[in-house]
Design a protein that fits this description.
The chain is built from 5 helices and no strands. By secondary structure, it is an all-alpha fold. Helix 1 packs across helix 5. The longest helix has 16 residues.
């Protein structure tokens, strides 16, 4: 899956499911600060990612993510590893 499609899908569900202001989403923006999600929201996000991309993200994955670019890259790498 192309990165642009991953970004579009992720941004779409962040705006629609988590009510994140789309204008605040950028590659360099801090993921946790921008999203302002609680632990239950992160569980919901994991479920949405799995249903959209067929990959699972764990706690260790989220600890490594600082920016939205990190988030997209992690999903992209998980998809690539799954398809390898």
């Amino acid at each position: 899956m192309e990165r642009e499609k991953i970004v579009a899908i992720v941004n779409d569900f962040l705006v629609n499911e988590f009510e994140v202001d789309g204008d605040e989403i950028s590659n360099e923006a801090n993921l946790k600060t921008t999203l302002g999600l609680d632990s239950l929201d992160y569980i919901d996000m994991v479920v949405i990612i799995e249903s959209n991309f067929g990959v699972k993200l764990g706690e260790a994955d989220f600890k490594k993510m600082i920016t939205f670019d990190d988030f997209y890259t992690t999903i992209e790498n998980k998809i690539a590893n799954k398809n390898a």
